[in-house]
Amino acid sequence: MSSSVPHSADPNGPPSASSAGSSSESEANFDDLDTYLDYRAAASDTGSWRPPTDHRRKAGPLVMVETAFLASTAALIWLVNTYFPPGPILRILFPLPMALVYLRWGPRAAWMSALVSGLLLSVLMGPPRSLLFLMPYAIMGVQLGFTWVRGANWYISIAAGTFLGSLGFFFRLWLMSVLIGEDLWVYLTTQVTQMLNWGLEKLVNFGILDIGVLGQANVEAIQILALVMVLLSNVVYLFTVHLAAWLLLERLGAKIPEPPAWVQDLLAD
Q: What is the pLDDT of residues 14-68, one digit of tens each?
């Protein structure tokens, strides 16, 4: 009885079809792998800010994982600050997760993170509180990422954020007025009136103004003063957000434009 024994391939002969197929398959695998990798030479630090490198075509689930993680982080920060407020510390971090998503993965991922965080807060806390987060903080994070990735200086990004934050303040004022059935703008102007009368009284006591100015503050002046106070508070808030982002985001793989020279001098001192 004869048995057929396969002959070993001649090492000096032409490659078999199976070996050629495996070789082409391994080359294809390496070609696919190369699309996930991004080889770059180390860039020298020249000290000037440049927009973050575009690495959004790295494919794979990384963009989805980071977007979901940062959206849940933003929702968790809002949740903790609502029920266990530690002061203004967490409030500074409200827009930063969306800004970080924009810097790393672009506008689509940033808008998705804002939407996901709003939906998560809507489930956990209800739609009104989720709306209070979306406008202005989630949208402000997208706006900050938009200006930072284009290398805009701090004055431009703070001005745009101040405008958006002021709109968000009046949106929250309108929403809360609708929910509680009271006009909170009247309450705000009343508080500003009391503050203005207190200031005028102090000036009269120091002899700077005549006593006749007391009780003469008109409604238009009070409303203008309230608007100025809202703008100034948003300017201070955006400035602290920029400082926090400048100190934190670079350690997380993103970098924002450098602050003005006078800010760096203050921090150096």
A: 545 444 455 555 554 545 544 444 444 444 444 455 555 555 555 468 888 999 9
What residues have CB less than 8 Å from 203, skipping those under 6 apart? 209, 213
SS (HEC) of 138-180:
HHHHHHHHHHHHCCCCHHHHHHHHHHHHHHHHHHHHHHHHHHH
Note whether 154 and 246 are within 8 A (CB): no
For the entire predicted model, the pTM comes to 0.74
Please return the burial class of 71, using the count of CB atoms within 10 Å of its CB with bins 0-12, 13-18 and 19+.
Answer: buried
Q: Count Cα neighbours of 215 within 13 Å in the Cβ-side half-sphere.
A: 2
Q: Tell me the residue type at 97.
A: P
Q: Which two tokens stand for residue 22?
A: 């495996």
Q: How many H helices and E strands in the chain?
A: 11, 0
Burial degree of 102 (CB within 10 A; 0-12, 13-18, 19+): buried
Strands (E), the chain: none
**From the CB of residue 27, how many other CB atoms can be counted at a distance below 10 Å?**
10
- Taking CA atoms, 208 is separated from 23, 34, 197, 204, 228, in Å, by 92, 75, 14, 6, 24
